[in-house]
Design goal:
17 helices; 6-stranded mixed sheet; alpha+beta
Length: 552
């Protein structure tokens, strides 16, 4: 996979096979809808695209951009996918009704805004129950299928309607956090589609636009009919700015520019997403020019990359690296043990020394970049003596041993935690897997005590993912009726300020129960080569590659 000649040889070959064409540019006028979210109408206007001279610093529109992933792509199926690096790939092929504005840095927009995508405008009913989308006309999927209200209905029913011919259990499970309170849908006409919920659902737009375990990206109904639910991910077809070319599992995914795209055409003629799981190998590939961008640069490599002139941009990223404590495990059933575990970890030193200041210590389920984040809210600060006291009170004065499971790339973080825990008597046995294997067993067996995850949302609805008894994101099986009650109030509250107050109340419950142990929020998500131009790192875990190019 890591052939040193991959970039040069592959680029030349593939560039010769692809054509240059016309770019469509558009202008936007943003307004606020009644949900406080930006919406705009895009009016495409055609302009001629020609290759430009790199010396003028103008975009080069015939290049190949190679991005090194740290975890393998799961599935190129919008409602079956998992992981934000997979979403980065998927969102170039598929689009959702709304999307996030990724054109601004964290300094320009601390929280990314929701803007139109396949829906030009939308309204929310005064009671907060019904969302009506006015769809963009003239859009086609990459296989020629028309995008319209029927296509939206097909995708929703696939993940929601058990009576539908193409209903998919996997998609339904993944999308349950979006559709579990959906009452009805309606294709009002060819270009109008509405969702009606049983209760107000403020997070709906935000969840449609982002990736997690499943996303609101829309697939071609024709492709799903022809391939079936289980085969679609092998030949995905969307409306997005890039067309799927090939995937070699465990190695790379290639997409080429969609020259029939309805909006602004991408600068790069093709994107290649390569898997390089090893942190040092990923940094080396950037140094040698084998790849143009690397994701998740490890803390121990960031300083040296900066010293060598590589850009490692910082951003207000809405994510957190955390440990999930298995509440079904014999030790972690006891809240005192969970609290002792949280007190035992020195997050400040981890962020400062191991991660060289490129991360923010995390103490709460509401992480940086989340609407419910509070920098002063720090339950369970580092206090090893308090940890020992709680362990003694729980009946473990000499500590105990337990297994922690993680995935490749996290070794340094987990070993740091292992050393801290050993100081209070808790011995961690580390088991490391590749991302796909880890993902398949992220719901821990009772004999496993802890696992790791890096995840997060902009919306405070993230608390639901971690704490609600019906959420599929509770990898440790945590439940508390009190948090269900508060989350219901937060979800159904129309007033944003009142809703946020309820979310913070829910945050405090889950923090005090130590359902998870947050460790740190990374301030960097990527490093880029000197030849990469136009890349903007927004306040999100993914970014827009359509306006990125490489100098010749």
């Amino acid at each position: 996979m890591r052939k040193s000649t991959f970039k040069t040889g592959s680029r030349l070959l593939l560039l010769l096979t692809l054509a240059l064409s016309v770019v469509v540019t558009g202008c936007q006028a943003a307004t606020k809808n009644n949900n406080g979210v930006n919406q705009a109408t895009v009016s495409p206007s055609a302009t001629t695209s020609t290759e430009t001279d790199a010396a003028t610093n103008e975009p080069v529109k015939d290049g190949t951009l190679i991005v090194a992933l740290s975890t393998d792509v799961t599935l190129l199926d919008p409602t079956r996918q998992g992981g934000w690096q997979t979403f980065l790939v998927n969102r170039n092929i598929h689009e959702s009704l709304v999307k996030e504005d990724l054109s601004k840095t964290s300094e320009e927009a601390a929280v990314v805004e929701i803007i139109p995508s396949l829906a030009e405008t939308w309204e929310v009913s005064p009671d907060g129950l019904t969302y009506t989308f006015h769809l963009r006309k003239g859009v086609k999927f990459q296989d020629g299928t028309d995008f319209n209200a029927d296509a939206v209905e097909f995708n929703v029913r696939r993940a929601w309607d058990k009576e539908f011919e193409f209903f998919d259990e996997v998609s339904a499970t993944n999308m349950s956090r979006i559709y579990n309170d959906l009452k009805s849908i309606q294709a009002v006409d060819a270009n109008t589609f509405s969702f009606t919920f049983n209760h107000p659902f403020q997070a709906f737009l935000r969840l449609l636009a982002q990736g997690s375990t499943g996303s609101g990206l829309i697939a071609s109904p024709t492709a799903i009919r022809e391939l079936g639910n289980d085969k679609y991910a092998e030949h995905p077809v969307g409306t997005g700015p890039f067309v799927f070319v090939e995937r070699v599992i465990g190695d790379h995914v290639t997409v080429k520019r969609n020259d029939n795209y309805w909006g602004d055409k991408a600068y790069a003629q093709q994107l290649i997403f390569r898997l390089i799981a090893d942190n040092n190998a990923r940094a080396t590939a950037l140094r040698t020019g084998e790849v143009d961008i690397i994701l998740s640069p490890a803390g121990e490599t960031i300083s040296s990359l900066k010293q060598d002139g590589f850009s490692v941009p910082a951003a207000n990223l809405p994510s957190v690296f955390y440990l999930t404590l298995n509440t079904q495990n014999e030790y972690f059933k006891d809240i005192k043990v969970r609290q002792a575990f949280a007190y035992a970890i020195d997050r400040e030193s981890l962020s400062k020394d191991l991660l060289e200041g490129n991360a923010t210590p995390a103490y709460s389920a509401a992480h940086t970049g989340n609407e419910a984040y509070d920098a002063d809210h720090k339950p369970f600060p580092y206090d090893p003596e308090k940890a020992k006291q709680l362990l003694a009170e729980a009946g473990y004065p000499d500590g105990f041993g337990v297994t922690i499971q993680t995935y490749t790339g996290n070794e340094a973080y987990v070993e740091w935690v292992q050393r801290d825990l050993a100081k209070v008597g808790i011995q961690l046995k580390i088991e490391t897997f590749d991302w796909a294997t880890f993902g398949a067993q992220r719901f821990m067996k009772p004999e496993v005590g802890v696992n790791t995850m890096s995840w997060g949302f902009v919306t405070a609805y993230w608390i639901y993912v971690l704490g609600h008894s019906e959420s599929t994101g509770r990898y440790g099986g945590y439940t508390n009726p009190a948090i269900d009650e508060v989350i219901a109030k937060a979800n159904n509250e129309i007033d944003p300020d009142k809703a946020l107050a309820y979310w913070k109340e829910a945050r405090d419950i889950i923090d005090n129960d130590v359902a998870i142990v947050p460790l740190f929020s990374s301030n960097t998500s990527l490093a880029q080569g000197r030849n990469v131009k136009g890349l903007i790192v927004p306040s999100q875990n993914w970014f827009d590659l359509t306006k990125v190019w490489t100098e010749k």
